[in-house]
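anyone seen this seq b4? input:
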Amino acid sequence: MNFEKLLEVAAKGGEVTIPSSWAQGRASFGGVSAALVFDRMANAVAPGRPMRSMQVSFVGPVTPEEPATVEAELLREGKAVSQVLGRIVQGGEPRLMVLASFGGDRESEVQVGALPAPEAKPVDQCNGLDYIKGVTPEFIQQIEMRWAFGNLPFSGKGGRELGGWMQFRKTPETFSDAHIIALVDAWPPAVLPYVKGRVKTSSLAWALDIVHPRPVLEPGDWLLYKATIDEASSGYGHTHAGIWTARGELVALSRQTVTVFG
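predicted toks r here
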């Protein structure tokens, strides 16, 4: 099932079964799970209020090939901002919780441009992360990544930065905020180049802000992602990342807390 079909099913508020082609270990890929909840939440708010900020808590694994319910609850709708709570429930238990703020534009004297995008090699000069059955996560069948920053996971070479170019392998019909959410979470944790052997990691919490008015994105456009480690110790890593268009326009800001089992 492709990404658009999953969104269509989740938007109706019924049960959705995430196929194993979107798996990440024993769980469904967190980016697609969060995107499904976001899309359900977006349909619950007044028109003209894009998502400004969301906080995601990965309570437990959303198991692939098992029915799950995507829910959204409008907590408050003010003059400009709507606060929405979303969740995925599976087996009678919450597996993913999302709190998001949707806000319309306001008149303001404050106008500060974004910092410039980092310099990166062109897409065609970057090595791709190919899908290898039994080695890479299953969802790599769906999302293509080209390495531009940092060392590879499990290389033992370390480094504070990690990232590169990303897009869907199958060009979507449209390019919405939900597509951005799915892409941003595809990159492995920036702490993994520090370990030499394969160890388990999982996202504990994730915060994502999408800049609006958002730069125009067409289906098939590449996005650039660069994550930086703020601190990592005692089995936890704290990172922040930026996401830009190929033209250098800021699209989103991400912050993540990950657990490292090794």
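The chain has a mean pLDDT of 93. DSSP finds three helices and 14 strands in the chain. kinda curious what u guys think
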